[in-house]
Amino acid sequence: MEQWAILVLGVVRLSLNLDYDRLHDLINHHDTLRQMLGHNDWTDKTAYKLQTIKDNVRLFTPELLDRINHEVVLTGHALVKKKSRKISYL
């Protein structure tokens, strides 16, 4: 399973508090989720097995999500440095 798929499925699972059976159903039947994973066409018959999902997505923990969020914020701050604004009082 690709890292992008693990990230997307891990975020979906943690955000919606899903069990693996429900996640398995969504990944194989929900068009929008499949588009996020790169399956853009209804002719794409890629199917994910439940055990593959369990083996890979279980590694995506809330702590890992927090670390990723922290790094994204730090990178965003480094790219767009906040300008100090002068506050004028009337």
What topology emerges from the helices and strands here?
Blueprint (H helix, E strand, L loop, with lengths): L2 H14 L3 H10 L1 H6 L13 H8 L4 H18 L11
Structure explained in plain terms:
- With 90 residues, the chain is mainly α.
- It has one domain (3-79).
- It is built from five helices and no strands.
In a nutshell, what does this entry contain?
The protein is mainly alpha-helical and 90 residues long.
Name the descriptors:
mainly alpha
Radius of gyration: 18 Å
Percent strand equals under 5%
| Largest sheet descriptor | none
**Chain-averaged pLDDT:** 88
Structural class by secondary-structure content? mainly alpha
Distance between the termini: 60 Å
The unreliable regions are: none
Query: Can you tell me the number of structural domains?
Result: 1
Tally of individual helices: 5
SSE string, helices as H and strands as E: HHHHH
Query: What is the global morphology?
Result: globular
Strand segment tally: 0
Helical fraction equals 55-70%
